[in-house]
Amino acid sequence: MMRVRRTTVSAMILGTAMLGTALLGASAASAAGTSTCSALFDDFSYTSPNDSALTGNGWQARTNAGGPGVVGAAWSSSNISFPTVDGSKVARLTAYTTGNAGGTSQAELLTGERRFKDGTYASRIRFTDSPTSGKDGDHVNETFFAIGPQQRFDYDPDYSELDFTEYLPNGGWGARGPIAYQTSYNGYRLEPWDPHNAHSQQTSSLNGWHTVVTQVWDGHVKYYMDGALLGDHTVDEQTGQYPVAPRVPMSVNFNLWFIDIAGHKGARSTYTEDVDWFYYAKDQVIAPGEVTATATSLRSSGTTHLDTVDSGLCGGSTTTLVKR
Fold first, then answer.
1. pLDDT exceeding 90 applies to what percent of the chain?
2. Which H/E stretch holds residue 306?
């Protein structure tokens, strides 16, 4: 089913599988420690969006106006917090609406640099079906994605975007909820909307914690959730001609926003999305089970942040290893 949607693409215009593990172009990587080579791990052990460690580690809370979402809605850094949940720090995104643009505020946490292309992306995320306060029913979108620079022209072949998961508990874009999408892009035309993309979708509730893993290599984009393969994208589903694996480096983003406010009822409704950790392994295909094992091992050792993406070094060999 083709969706008519102007989602993360609008953010750039207006505001901004394999079971088993192989180290691509090199020898096989079997030990969990190997998964810290040319890798980034963050468990979001920060105090606030103003924490110098947050920006020092490459993250920023969005404050600039624009899409996606309700025209005129705000994006506030105060909508990003770092509470302790089940004994671990998490990044919490909060968004709320009163049913009008002036009373709508959305959240986005993103990397300030575009450093990510081929390899394995992963995050443990708590999606929610209901607001923490207020009446339910809003067309809210709980997301995890990567995106490159905005298009230079219609159907720009360099335009790269991977929506690892967009979860719409109450539906949206004409679809009933709950529904989740994974989408891979190669350019688009905005008016009238005509994308070159491939997508997968699921229509069951995702309420609760889930581990989202995406492997990008050799022209394939493989999407997993909790170890299950959801889709393997290679070319666009409209023409079958355009590759949808990324062509250029991208930033990594988490955001929580409202597709529209048509379904709003009552006074203010507030929604949240929690992110336990993020992991990326450059130019490596890491199996979902090993991703989880690596994250668990790093946390058990007290590591809160590791960044060897550009150095090519391993976790024990770099000063970017931060421990409690």
1. 83
2. strand 303-307
